[in-house]
Amino acid sequence: AAAAAASIARSLRERSRDRQAQEEWRALAMTVDRLCLWAVLVLTGGCALGTGLDAALHRPPPTPFP
């Protein structure tokens, strides 16, 4: 009976350790996911702004074919 109780206790400790490791990995994955989201948003916004400014600031010359 003592061996069975020790086995159950060991199993519960391992499950608890596994659950904790899983939660830590989940938190890390969420952090990386948010960082990637912000990177994509900044790059997309920067490209859109750059494209808009490029189009707004470039005017055709008065005589295109001299």
What does this structure look like?
With 66 residues, the chain is an all-alpha fold. Helices cover 85% and strands 0% of the residues. The chain has one helix and no strands. The longest helix is centred in the middle third of the chain and has 56 residues, at 2-57. The chain starts with a helix and ends in a 9-residue tail after the last helix. Residues 4-46 form the Neurotransmitter-gated ion-channel transmembrane domain. Pfam families: Neur_chan_memb.
Order of secondary-structure elements: H
Task: Name the average pLDDT.
Answer: 94
Q: In this structure, how is the largest beta sheet organized?
A: none
Classify the secondary structure makeup into a structural class.
mainly alpha
Query: What does the overall shape look like?
Result: rod-shaped
Distance N to C terminus: 100 Å
Count, helices? 1
Poorly predicted parts: none
- Give the total of beta strands: 0
Rounded to an integer in angstroms, the radius of gyration calculated over CA atoms is: 29 Å
Helix content: over 70%
Strand content: under 5%
List the helices and strands and how they pair.
Blueprint: H1 2-57
Keywords summarizing the entry:
Neuro_actylchol_rec, single chain, mainly alpha, 66 residues
In brief, what are we looking at here?
With 66 residues, this protein is an all-alpha fold. 85% of the residues lie in helices and 0% in strands.
